Structure formats: structure tokens, C-alpha cells
Amino acid sequence: MTVQTASAPPSPYSSAIGKSNPETHTLAVLVDNEPGVLARVVGLFSARGFNIESLTVTEVAHEAHLSRITVQTRGAPETIEQVRHQLERLVPVHQVTDLTLRGSAIERELAMVKVAGRGDARVEALRLADAFRARTIDATTGSFVFELTGRSDKIDQFVELMRPLGLVEVARTGIAAIGRGPEAAG
Amino acid sequence: MSKQMSGAEMVVQALKDQGVDTIFGYPGGAVLPIYDALFHQNHVRHVLVRHEQGAAHAAEGYARSTGKVGVLLVTSGPGATNAITGLTDALLDSIPLVCITGQVPTHLIGSDAFQECDTTGITRSCTKHNYLVRRVEDLARVLHEAFYVAASGRPGPVVIDIPKDVQFASGAYAFDRTAKHKTYAPRLKGDMDAIRRAVEMMARAKRPILYTGGGVVNSGPQASALLRELAGLTGFPVTSTLMGLGAFPASDPKWLGMLGMHGTFEANNAMHDCDLMVAIGARFDDRITGRLDAFSPGSRKIHVDIDPSSINKNVKVDLGIVGDCAHVLDDMVRLWRSGGHRPDAAAAKDWWERIDRWRARKSLAFRNSATVIKPQWAIQRLYELTKGRKTYVTTEVGQHQMWAAQHFHFEEPNRWMTSGGLGTMGYGLPAAIGVQMAHPDALVVDVAGEASILMNMQEMSTAAQYRLPVKIFILNNEYMGMVRQWQELLHGGRYSHSYSESLPDFVKLAEAYGAHGIRCSDPAKLDDAIREMIETPRAVIFDCLVDKQENCFPMIPSGKAHNEMLLAELADDAGVELGAVIDEKGKMLV
User: Fold this and answer.
1) pTM of this structure
2) Which of A66, B109, B246, B402 could form a disulfide with B413 if both were Cys (CB 3.0 to 4.6 A apart)?
3) DSSP code string of B556-583
4) Residues of B recognised as catalytic
């Protein structure tokens, strides 16, 4: 999911100084699991013209009613700092962690990839799926559904390989991310 | 200790427990139970407005002039949507409001029921926070939480949407003053190391300036007192945004006047040439900075703000301090004293000499006239004739607002109520009503334009009903003056739809509302007319017919820097083509 802003001509009001090159950062946002909280987060990105490159959200602590939103965003480092502060301003937000700043976070995505075909293409698809350690979770005489977990670039690569072999459709979860080592995000 | 009561009774009980004495509202189907609960008590006064936008601005005026949370009560659907402009206004100017909206019963939500709208959806982006209370069990907690969120940290508007069945339902009410919010805990105290560094930077500065904003007023009277103390100790010159006027006394020789697009020559040039800028509770808005890549190029910048997202948002600063203005100013004053710092006398002398040269340009000067009332002069006379009284000024939006900011001078905070961030025409009259409700004995003047005032003119009826002696001082130039000025500067004098056609007779209109009407067009009679307005114990509409062509100067033209100000003397010179001052890029800006 991408919320892009049209590239506007440089304005004399906008700061030409100190805008560095864009970077991609992954933020972990811990929120109260209450109605409308996702709309607040997503609405903030669109209202302020920030990008969302990937977004996943689900409850992570049932008793405490906590959800974790993992959002990947792209922008200059000062824009990403601004994203973090704006998120922290939302009342139901407990904490925002820039996993990219903390270094070498583990990022994974799950994809389900449907491939239809017969003969050599089918054999080749199955062989590649095996090479990528994808699981076959549905099979008919004319199709497979593969389940694949890994970094986004690995999934991209797998999907590209499946394209000439009868790719039908792809469902991806978006990125879930967690920092390495014993500490929790925060 | 909890008590059983209906949801509607909880609303009124919570208002009472929060110390609310006055609310502004308009009844309707979805809030009838709350109105019924109001009927049965005497603790909370309800002021019936004539339009929900008026309720929101009145609550803003009440809040801004008292430092308390302003409260409004409106019905579902159109009641809520009419309040949106006021909520957005409060968000941009950081005014604490609690807005209670009725909602259709929970079983009808989402069915496009009569007078249903998605209030929490619509208000999500124009409130600090909002709630839809689906269960009466949550209502007491949400009501008190809303007051906490509205007033804490950077203040703002909070909406509580209460379905009608929840208002009727019975539940347990409790108020725990010690309850802590689980996520929202704004930082009040600034980082001491950062403040220590700030004080060291201040001690070394040769050309310092204090750039203060609405955050100083919002922080409370203590912050204004500390600002005065800090300026007294350091001898630093002080300027302020539109929203911060009054936090520092205009009579102090260190006061440079307002800065920004229509700020003074000395304030803007001092901002441009300073070597240390200390921003306190101000947010580097585009009306303040002008052209960003030429904004105060040679200075180091310190920014004190309670909202971390304000720091480095528009302007990159050298030192950010997150904290409440009063707390941080207190620490600054203490550290300046304990560090034995003294202002650098030689540097200060040089700096003030430069500032005095800018001052000598008298950028607010205008050519007065014996035949027509100049709007600046009208404000000056209003100021002189109300001096020494307990006067509160509200404004609408446009040229008159800038002239009021330039020529009416404030000694105290919370005396100046204006729509700064959103620029809402129609703000001033309802805001004046809110101020007058809070300060029944004060002189409350709405400095207005003839176009703005018509946007919420219906509130004259509210003023009449509650016998509020608000004074509406209209600078009537028969134009949407600021629009006309921009059309002159940017669009070749093609005054597209900016002429105030078919105006009402304001004197007769005043009389129609049971108020007193005054008209004046003769400079020689202006003082007497203003005295008549002040001495009238009822509401007054003063139709002050002023020079139709007058422009608001000085001005930083769009897309220009602080040291490229356009002064009235230049604009008056024959041969200066005003349209040529702003380039194509500048025309794109607002």
C-alpha cells in the first residue's frame, strides 16, 4: 500500500537546506487495540504526505488490548523523525520504535503464490518452490498454492520466477519486523 | 465511591466535577437526554448559541481568556458538522476544548439514520483525540480522560460522541482524580543538560532574540511572568507571534512588536540578523518564517516546545528542548542566576543600536487624514480610549485583524483572542460572547471587518439573550480587505468578488437585535463615538467607515525573506509597481 504525494514544484516556503537522501525505515508502533486506531495512523500518513510502503497490523497482547503496527516508510531522515514524533502524538499510541535506526532488525513477510500449469512448467515451479523452501499448501492437477516466508526481496524474486511458469495471483502480508537480541522494542 | 445514574446525568456530573461552570450549545434530538439532565441542576450554565460554529468559537474565547477547558454540547449530524470549523480552529491554535456530540442510538449507527453522521470519522483529523462511547460503563472514564487530554501537553479539542441509548442507560459513575492515563503523559520538565547548554549559548550571544508564541500563553500566567523575568535578566529583545501577544508587555522597551508577514521592521530584521534565536512556544509557521531558505541564516537556534513534533518540523534547530514553557523558563532563569551570568554590555549596546535604527524606520506609521478615518488610526484611538480598563479583544480575520495586532497593545496574556492558525472569518463575535460570559465586568471588543462579521452575525441574538455588552467595532471598508490587497499585489488589481455588495445597515441591524448602533465616518467625531460605545451598557455594533483603499503594511511579500519587507512608505511612492514586488514563485503561495 502506498500513499504517495504528487511531486510538487519546489516552494520558497519549503526548506531546500538540509534535506538528505531518502531512506527506507521500518517502524514498530504499539497501540491500544481500539476502534479507529488504524484509521488514525493511516490518516496521519495521508494527511501529512508521508509514504507507506508496507503496513501490517494485528493484536499482539490480548489481555492488554495491544496491537502492533509495523509500517515501512520512505523519506529523508528528518522526515522519518517527523513521522515518529507525529505518531507519538496520537493518544492511543504507546510507543514508536524505529527498528532501522536500532540496526539489523529481522524483517519477514509471508506470501501465498498461486501457480497454474501443466507439464514442464508445473515440474519447474515445484522444483523452484523447493529451492526457496516454499511449502505447498494446496494442490490440484492443474495448480499449486505455495506458502513462502522470508525477506521481501526473496519473495519478489520467487514471484518473478513464477511469472513465466503460470503465476495466477499473489497474496502478501506485508512486513513484520522485530529487533535482534534480548531487549524489547522501546 | 461510585454512584448509579444515567449516562446523561454522568455528563452533567462530570462537568461539575471538572469545575465547568459554563457550556455553549444547541439542542437536538440526539442530545435531548443531556439537555433534560441540564434542566434539573444549577451548577452548569448553558449558553444557547444560534449556530454550532458559534458554540465552538465561544468555547474557544472562554478557554483562551480563562486558561480553562472550553466546553460545547451539540447534537448529532448537522450539529456535529457545524462545529467542525471551530474544532479545526482550536486544533491549529492549541485551544483546549471538550465537544460533546449526540449520536443516533448504537443499533442505528451505520444505517444512515436521521441526523446520523460518522462524527468520529469526520473529526479524526481536526481533533487532538476523539471517542465514540458505545457502553455506558466507559462513559465516566472517557469524560474525565477527555478533559485530561484536552488540557495536557499541547492543548487541543477533544470530541466525545455519545449515542442516545447510552445517554439513557444507567451505570456506575466514579471520578478518580488520581487516575493516570495509560499512554498519554506529556513531558513538562525540560532536559536539564539541554537547558544548561541553552543558558551557556545565551550567555555567549552577541545578537540574541527571544521569539515567543502562543505556547507561552497556553502554559499559564506563570510562564508570562518568567518570560518577563528572563528578558529582564538577560536584556534580550523580545518579539512574538500573533498568538503570543500579551505574554510580554508591549510597553517594555525590549518589546520589538509582532514578527512575521505583517510584523514590524525591527522584529523581522532582528530575527534575520540575530546570532542566537530562542524560540519559546512558537512553531515556525510559514507566516512567521517567510522564505525558509533565507530564514535567519546566521543564527544558532534554540527551540522550547511541549510538542516534540514541532521541533525540527519547519526549521532545523541547533538545540531542541521538549517541555512546558513555564518549567523550562523557570530552569533558564534559575541557571542564568546561579551561573552568575551577566549580559554582554558591549555587544548589547551594538545590537540595540542596530535595532533602534530599524525602529527609526517607524514601519507601522501611516499617513493620517482629516477627511477619512484611517483604519490604523481607528485602532489606535480604540486602544488609547480603552487603556487602563480591563479590556479583552477578539478579532475576525483579515486586514482589521493585522491592524489590531499592530496598533492595539497588550500588557497581559489571555487578553487577545484571534484565529491565528486557521484564519477563520466569523471567529470574533462568538469568541467575544465566550469571553464576556467568563468576564462579565470586562470590556470585550470584537475588532471586525464588515465581511467577517456577517459570517456569524446570528450570534447577536445570543448576546441579546444573555445581555452581554459585547462591542463589535467594524472597520468597514466595503471590501474583503485582505483579499482586495492580495488582488492588488498579485492579480493586477482585478478585484474579483471581493467587494462587499449589498451590506446591511449595521446601525439598524444592531437595533433589530436590541443592541445599540453607532456609525462614524468623520475622524473628528471618532473619539466621541468610541466613548459612546464604551459607555453603552448594552451590546454595540459600531460601523466605522474607513478608507476603502488602505493596505496593511509593513509586509513580507510572499516568497521573500525577513529582510525584504515592503514598507508603507515604499508602497506610497509614485512609480513603485506593487504587482512587480512578488515574483511568479511567490504568487503560488498563499
Assistant:
1) 0.94
2) B246
3) --TT--TTSPBPHHHHHSTT--GGGTS-
4) 52, 114-115, 164, 482
